């Protein structure tokens, strides 16, 4: 998979960018706040439909365009996948309504035809690694759920659709819970939304489960190499709704969390959906009091568990007890595992986006990462200084200097 | 709004801009058109609006908008009163009537379940429907809400309220539109069309 051409209009600090990308590593260098990260962000936006760095799409529109009264941004790319060309295009336009509020219109086009966000699935696949990626281990649970969603949405359209439907039904059910609590509404009207939540919640949980399963497997192998066999890494999925092991009885039943509850032959899809729906119904009294739904994929969690073969069976939750260095290495392992997972799922190598990450790695990890860069069809790296890379690598790469939202040959 | 504009003008602009699809600028343009235009247009419009609010009411049976109660459809003895078609709004009745194939009667909900926008079951004519189903000699209820998430949620809720009663409950079929093209149909529509394919 290759990005052949990238065009940005009023995106972050780029007024305009027209860039032809080669099928070898691209090294973007330049000082801070010149636009290196924004370029990677734009590519990620086309892959996943939303920015990993902005809390709202509004932030992506260049402030000068807003000041000029033309609040409009556009990211456009031409890709080559499986020998076929494809165009992806996302336009953001801010409208001011008569009541003074603003509304952001997001238009997604695939090959010039308007599409929904879930239609971006299976088009451009990327793996992004930035200095902030360490939050995946050390940050809040929402970031870990977001990580799973971004990876899965890029690959599986059905996941993306289930996620949209789930989010919509969740808003509705929460509104009914508050209506029942505050205005004495009829709780029977919770049922239609519980059906939608159960159906899509099971689709989401199953996909997340098999994703984390594969990710854990790959991450362990990568982590062994990165640490010289000093540390083992495992990812545990803690679904908020676990059909085979309901949270209340999980320990009594002695069911381990990493057991494959979704692939148990005696539990069919319909049974899972029904059990989930009943669990929601059982929680109604508590949730009416709280005015929100507390069960479901929006409450899922992942744990990063490390153990050291030399220390026996002692296991450490890296999110709570890991050192900063351990957390960084774990995230690198997970990101490279994601690369392998995407390759397996799509039979294509994703575009690797590395933002300022080589600088903080030791020699062994840096060498391993450069090996990965060489194994993909296209990688885009950023650095403040090209000297950080070894001469052989810089020679093979196309180096471009980024300065004040302008990209030129270095 | 500037104080140089007479209050009666300002009031109309404000009232008009409450209409769907009409912003402040359009409302002002319409107001000044009425001021400058033939003077009887404003009066005829005023009369029409007054008639609209004074003469129309809800049919006490189906809750469609009507001048006579019961409405012409509910009053028509030639129609099949054992079949009720449940729709979201009066415009849906109009659409089905124009197709000229349905001989049953209607029930207008006046909306769909949309809790996040503050529309709950209590805001719709649902208890009126269950009362009607329980009292009358109803044999079939056709749930004809739109094939949207909200329409489906509403149909699902109606089903839960009605299924204990002994009657046939159906949902409008969904599939490919006439004159449509398979090539351009979306995945959901195609899936439904395949699932509910017919023996020929």
Summarize the structure.
The complex is a heterodimer of chains A (410) and B (200). Chain A has helices at residues 36-48, 63-67, 135-138, 141-155, 157-183, 191-226, 250-253, 269-282, 284-290, 318-321, 324-346, 363-375, 391-396, and strands spanning 2-11, 14-20, 26-29, 72-81, 84-96, 102-110, 113-115, 126-129, 232-238, 301-307, 315-317, 351-355, 379-383, 398-403, 406-409.
Give your account of this protein's structure.
The complex is a heterodimer of chains A (410) and B (200). Chain A has 410 residues and is an alpha/beta fold. Helices cover 42% and strands 24% of the residues of chain A. Chain A has 13 helices and 15 strands. In chain A, the strands form three sheets. In chain A, strands 2-1-4-5-6-7 form a six-stranded antiparallel β-sheet. A six-stranded mixed β-sheet of chain A has the order 8-12-13-3-14-15, sandwiched between helices. In chain A, strands 9-10-11 form a three-stranded antiparallel β-sheet. The two termini of chain A are 25 Å apart. The longest helix of chain B is centred in the first third of the chain and has 17 residues, at 39-55. Chain B starts with 6 loop residues before the first helix and ends in a 5-residue tail after the last helix. In chain B, the strands form two sheets. A four-stranded parallel β-sheet of chain B has the order 4-3-5-6. Chain B has a two-stranded antiparallel sheet with strand order 1-2. Chain B has helices spanning 7-16, 24-36, 39-55, 72-75, 90-99, 126-135, 149-162, 187-195, and strands at residues 57-58, 65-66, 80-87, 104-108, 140-143, 168-171. In chain B, helix 1 (7-16) packs across helix 2. Chain B folds into two domains: 7-55, Helicase, Ruva Protein, domain 3, CATH 1.10.8; 78-171, Dna Topoisomerase Vi A Subunit, Chain: A, domain 2, CATH 3.40.1360.10. The A-B interface holds A 97-98, 165, 168-169, 171-176, 179, 185-186, 188-189, 191-193, 195-196 and B 17, 23-25, 113-116, 118, 120-122, 149, 152-154, 156-157, 160-161.
């Amino acid at each position: 998979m290759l990005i052949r051409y990238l065009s940005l209009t009023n995106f972050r600090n780029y007024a305009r960018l027209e860039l032809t990308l080669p099928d070898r590593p691209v090294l973007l260098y330049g000082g801070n706040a010149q636009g290196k990260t924004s370029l990677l962000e734009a590519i990620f936006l086309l892959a996943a439909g939303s920015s990993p760095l902005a809390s709202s799409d509004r932030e992506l529109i260049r402030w000068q365009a807003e000041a000029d009264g033309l609040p409009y941004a556009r990211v456009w790319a031409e890709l080559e996948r499986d020998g076929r060309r494809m165009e992806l295009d996302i336009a953001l336009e801010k409208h001011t309504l008569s009541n003074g509020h603003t509304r952001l219109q997001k238009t997604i086009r695939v090959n010039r035809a308007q599409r929904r966000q879930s239609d971006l699935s299976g088009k451009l696949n990327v793996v992004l690694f930035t200095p902030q990626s360490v939050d995946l281990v050390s940050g809040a649970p929402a970031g870990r759920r977001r990580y799973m969603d971004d990876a899965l949405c890029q690959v599986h359209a059905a996941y993306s659709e289930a996620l949209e439907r789930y989010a919509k039904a969740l808003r509705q059910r929460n509104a009914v819970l508050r209506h029942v609590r505050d205005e004495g509404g009829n709780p029977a009207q919770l049922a239609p939304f519980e059906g939608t939540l159960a159906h899509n919640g099971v689709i989401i949980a199953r996909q997340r489960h098999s994703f984390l399963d594969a990710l854990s497997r790959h991450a362990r192998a990568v982590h062994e190499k990165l640490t010289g066999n000093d540390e083992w890494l495992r990812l545990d999925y803690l679904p908020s709704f676990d059909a085979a092991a309901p949270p209340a009885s999980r320990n009594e039943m002695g069911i381990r969390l990493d057991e494959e509850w979704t692939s148990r032959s005696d539990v069919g899809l319909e049974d899972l959906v029904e059990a989930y729906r009943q669990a929601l119904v059982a929680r109604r009294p508590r949730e009416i009091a709280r005015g929100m739904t507390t069960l479901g994929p929006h409450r899922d969690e992942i744990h990063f568990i490390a153990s050291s073969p030399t220390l026996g069976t002692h296991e450490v939750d890296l999110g709570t007890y890991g050192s900063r260095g351990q957390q960084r290495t774990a995230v690198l392992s997970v990101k490279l595992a994601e690369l392998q997972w995407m390759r397996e799922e799509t039979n294509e190598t994703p575009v690797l986006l590395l933002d300022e990450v080589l600088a903080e790695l030791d020699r062994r990890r840096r060498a391993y990462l450069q090996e990965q860069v060489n194994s993909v069809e296209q990688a885009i790296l950023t650095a403040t200084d090209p000297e950080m890379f070894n001469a052989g690598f810089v020679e093979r790469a196309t180096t471009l200097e980024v300065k004040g939202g302008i990209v030129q040959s270095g | 709004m500037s104080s140089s504009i007479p209050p009666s003008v300002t009031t109309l602009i404000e009232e008009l801009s409450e209409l769907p699809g009409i912003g402040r600028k359009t409302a002002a343009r319409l107001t000044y058109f009425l001021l400058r235009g033939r003077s009887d247009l404003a009066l005829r419009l005023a009369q029409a609006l007054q008639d609209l609010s004074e003469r129309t009411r809800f049919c006490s049976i189906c809750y469609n908008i009507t001048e006579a109660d019961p409405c012409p459809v509910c009053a028509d003895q030639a129609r099949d009163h054992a079949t009720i078609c449940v729709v979201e709004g009066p415009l849906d009745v109009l659409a089905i009537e124009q197709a000229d194939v349905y001989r049953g009667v209607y029930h207008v909900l006046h909306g769909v379940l949309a809790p996040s926008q503050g529309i709950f079951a209590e805001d719709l004519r649902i208890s009126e429907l269950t009362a009607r189903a329980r009292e009358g000699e109803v044999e079939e209820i056709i749930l004809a809400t739109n094939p949207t998430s909200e329409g489906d949620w509403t149909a699902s809720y109606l089903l839960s309220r009605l299924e204990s009663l002994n009657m046939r409950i159906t949902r409008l079929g969904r599939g490919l539109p006439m004159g449509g093209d398979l090539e351009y149909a979306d995945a959901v529509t195609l899936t439904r069309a395949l699932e509910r394919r017919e023996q020929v």
